[in-house]
Amino acid sequence: MSYISIKKLWKSYGGNIVLEHVNASVGKGEFITIVGTSGCGKTTFLNMLLGTESASKGEILLEGALIPDEPNEDRGIVFQKYSVFPHLTALQNLMIPKELESAKLLCKVFGAKRKTIAAVAREMLAMVGLEQAADRYPHELSGGMQQRLAIAQALMKRPKILLLDEPFGALDPGIRKDMHKLILDIWKKTQINVFMITHDIKEGFHLGTRLWVFDKVRHDPDAPNAYGATITYDIPLGKCDAQIYNEIDTSLEQSRKELDILETTL
Amino acid sequence: MLSKRLINKKPSVVARVALGMLPFIATLIVYMWFSDIRLEANPNDKLMPSFSTMGDTMNRMAFVPSKRSGEYLLLVDTLASLNRLLLGVFISALIGLTFGILNGAIPLMRAKLSPYVTALSLIPPMAILPILFIVFGLGEVSKVMLIVIGITPFLIRDLQARTLELPREQLIKAQTIGANSWQVIVRVILPQIMPRLLVAVRLSLGTAWLFLIAAEAIASTEGLGYRIFLVRRYLSMDVILPYVVWIALLAFLLDWLLRELSSRLYPWFQAQSGDKP
Ligand SMILES: Nc1ncnc2c1ncn2[C@@H]1O[C@H](COP(=O)(O)OP(=O)(O)O)[C@@H](O)[C@H]1O
Ligand SMILES: [Mg+2]
Fold it and tell me: What is the pLDDT, as a whole number, of residue A170?
């Protein structure tokens, strides 16, 4: 039995069909990277895994059960920005998950318990290379450091799935390399299921065990919203080569052109 | 050196202080000039008293016990007014914070209460002052209530808007680390709304003063507003003018205190909002 099953998933907003016929089965510990043209529904798909959007038709199962339609501890998330709490220091940002767990009403812990939680949080800070920045607020951290913190925070409750929505999209290429290493290390250590959206196909190939391409199969030039996107390529990585890379690049060209036309007419 | 655009020119610290002082000094000079002209024509003129007359009067108000009650009038007036103002603002802030956050965070609450608050905020508070006097009598409660009624709807609506402005990503993130609704409010929303409450209170202080002085003018036995309206009968500009300046100074100090408090307690907020003095 597969760990996550996506069955005949559809999503539309009014007459705008975003996703159609999405079918997939994901094993435990897979690292899936998702690429596709902008606006094709990648974030929408991730939001359905997260539980902030519900499917119009079809279903997503996690370990055989319907995935809850509300965010919970099973699924960690890192957004492109606003992922960490600006009013908490780096250390406090990593302490809050455990604090909430042990102080349901007071929401804060004190004394010996606090020390234990702080120690765990410091360990995590060190793992993402932020031990020097423990007492700094997010606005005092660089973009890359903020994303490291966000990843660490998302892992504190040991979620089953880690969702990343273009997490490195706003970072410099050099810093992005470090982040790739970090995320791969974490994935190898925890064997967590990862879904990562990226607009950089190379990044998609470099990371992960499996690459999904979201794209429209059917096109109606007069009604661009009449058909939704689906998974057009589902490639196990590691054995991918230049030929597949070029093939995907040309296949997305059609959608990109359409997008350009749409943008110029808007 | 190329001349920058006007919008990009910034004054140096010295220049800023000098430029800031200039209008004040100019006002004083113009006042003195006109006052001299009027007093020369009629030494008993009351409309524009000289600085020395005002100084004498205020010296008497501040440091000589009143003949009738033995109290220092400026002190009594100031304490009475500040007491009412701070109590009214504090109660309003508490109500504003509670309902602003609840309305902003809980859609079910917002659907029920938001139209009501909007309707309430449309009632001119001065129009219900008579009702307050009838219901609560002429004592302290009515005056504090007027301030509360005057600024609370604004605070609720402003803080509701600020709560709704918090990035949705943060609320989602909180849920993914296991927070329930209460915990999201206490650990994510409340601490981020606190500095915004201070901003909103600073904005509403002017209105609070307005309602305080109005209430004191109508029914009171002490207070800054009461004194101004009392001595108006004798055309005592030598009391009114210094009192007005004193009120302005108190208002400025309160504003400054709140700003200091905010930057001490919430250093992250200053950076985020780019709020510069
Ligand atoms: N809440 C919403 N209401 C209406 N349309 C939406 C909503 N969210 C997304 N969409 C639409 O769904 C499409 C896919 O959006 P999105 O998933 O954000 O694309 P991507 O992440 O691939 O760039 C877009 O056309 C967008 O306009
Ligand atoms: Mg997106």
Answer: 87
CB–CB of B269 and A154 under 8 A?
Answer: no
The protein residue whose alpha carbon is closest to atom 8 in ligand 1 is: A44
Higher pLDDT, A47 or A220: A47
DSSP A68: P
**Rounded (5°) CA angle B142-B148-B150:** 100
Name the pTM for this structure: 0.88
Q: Which residues from B are below 8 Å from A152, CB to CB?
A: none
Cβ–ligand 1 distance for A37 under 6 Å, the answer: no
Domain of residue B64, CATH code:
1.10.3720.10
CATH code for the domain defined by A1-70+169-181+194-266: 3.40.50.300
Q: Which protein residue's CA is at the shortest distance from atom 16 of ligand 1?
A: A41
- pLDDT over 60 (residue B148): yes
Cα(A52) to ligand 1 centroid in Å equals 13
Counting every residue written for chain A, the total comes to: 266
Q: What is the pLDDT of residues A104-132, one digit of tens each?
A: 999 999 999 999 999 999 999 999 999 99
C-alpha gyration radius of chain B: 24
CA-to-CA separations, A128 to A148, A181, B61, B153, in angstroms, rounded: 6, 11, 66, 46
Domain ranges of chain A: 1-70+169-181+194-266, 75-158
Q: What is the ipTM of this complex?
A: 0.89
Q: Which residues of A touch B266 (CB under 8 A)?
A: 87
